[in-house]
Each structure stands twice: as structure tokens, then as C-alpha cells.
Design goal:
The chain has 237 residues and is of the alpha/beta class. Helices cover 38% and strands 28% of the residues. The longest helix has 18 residues. The radius of gyration is 17 Å and the shape is globular. The structure holds adenosine-5'-triphosphate.
Length: 237
Amino acid sequence: MSALLQICGLSAGYGRADVLNGIELTVAEGGVTTLLGPNGAGKTTTLRAISGLVRRTGSIRFQGVAIETLATEDIARLGIAHVPEGRGTFQRMSVFENLQLGAMPRRDMPKIRADIERVYGYFPILKQRYTQAAGLLSGGEQQMLAVARALMLRPKLILLDEPSFGLAPLVVRELFAILSRVRRDEKVAMLIVEQNARLALELADDAYLLETGRIVLSGKSQDVAQNERVRSAYLGA
Ligand code: ATP
């Protein structure tokens, strides 16, 4: 499969300090890639760098287009949706309004209603709660809303930052099962940062291990899952 996202020599950081030091990473068209690593390694910063939310240097190509100098809105408009840590839903707005906002960068307004119904198909609970304020949803429902909102962009790539964070194990399983369906049915690629390495490696085709701002291991998920260091540090084996 060809590369949808290709990152070469990416450095990024806050203020004067670099958190990422020349990372290389690829996400295949329609593929799922996971980025693993300890706290503070720079995983969130990598997603922010792709979305244009932090200072960065190096090359980031999306569908062959250089995006490393583009503004966040233009990156979204090209088809990269970002589900940030902490979900980023608008707490006082209803489920329905949050979904409408997800479609904001799009220009094909008439199709948006149909797409809301389409995402309800993945997340029926959101249809039941569509008038409710996002802030009143459970943690799992809020995470589902965050993913549903990202889908409203009709993205080619979704960046997911710790989707399982703070959720009960059963809810996490349900969420990952839905992500797997979304990936299959929407042919959307995903780059997932996740503490639950086992689940992430199950869903992903490719995996990268980031430590203190550098990629120290990469490969097919099943191979990375066999790596001794990954097994002992991330899989509790
Ligand atoms: P975690 O799992 O803890 O979120 P992470 O791998 O996602 O870890 P990042 O959140 O990317 O790591 O953080 C990498 C480094 O950048 C850390 O040292 C962190 O303190 C620092 N950092 C993160 N956000 C900011 C910020 N807004 N300003 C300054 N430094 C930051």
C-alpha cells in the first residue's frame, strides 16, 4: 500500500526546547499505525506537529502534499481529523451540535445531515442522546462523540490521542471494536497513540516505539509485539 502520510526528519517542541528529534514515520493509505512509548516521550507532540499545533521542522507529506508549513484549519481541510487527549468536545453544546461542528471545514453542506445519520450507525447511543449536552455524557460516550465528530470531516486520516484514557475495560473493548469497523467500512487511515499497547497492537498494522523524542523501533505490529523490550515494558509479558 502507498504512503498516505510520510514524515521525515521531524523535530518539534515548545518554546526553544525540542521534544521530537528527527523522527521518521509512515501511515499507509487506509492503514492503522500505532505510536507507543512511555509518558513524556513525545507521542502527543507528534500528533500536534502533524496537525500544525506546535512549532516543527522537517518534512510532513500527506497524499504527496507538503503540509509542514500549513495552518491547522488547512490541514483539517485536506482530510486530517484530530481527536485530542481529553477528547476536545464542546461540553455545553449538544451531541448534534458537536457533530455539526465536526463538519465545519467541509464545503458540501447538503451531505452533512446524511453523514450525521451515517455516524449514528456506528454510535447508536449518540442518536439516543442527540439533544443532550456533551458534558453530561459518560466518559465512554464522550470518547465516542469525539470519534464521531472526527468522522464528520470525512477524513482520510484520523489522529487519535489515547482513546482509551480513563475508560472502563469493557467500554474500551467496545470502542476499539467500533474503530475496527470504521477503519474497514470508511477506508480511513488512523494514527493511534495509546497506553494500552496490547489493544493498539491488535488493531494496528504497523507500530513505532518512541522514546525521548526518537523512534527506537518500528515494524509490522505482530513483529513489534514479539520484541522483548516491548513485551516486558508495554505488554507486561
Ligand atoms: P504522555 O503519555 O504523558 O501524554 P507523550 O509521549 O504524549 O506522554 P508529550 O505530551 O508529547 O508526551 O510530551 C513530551 C514532552 O513535552 C514532555 O516533557 C512534556 O512535559 C512536554 N510538553 C508537553 N506539552 C507541553 C507544553 N504545552 N509546553 C511545554 N512543554 C510541553
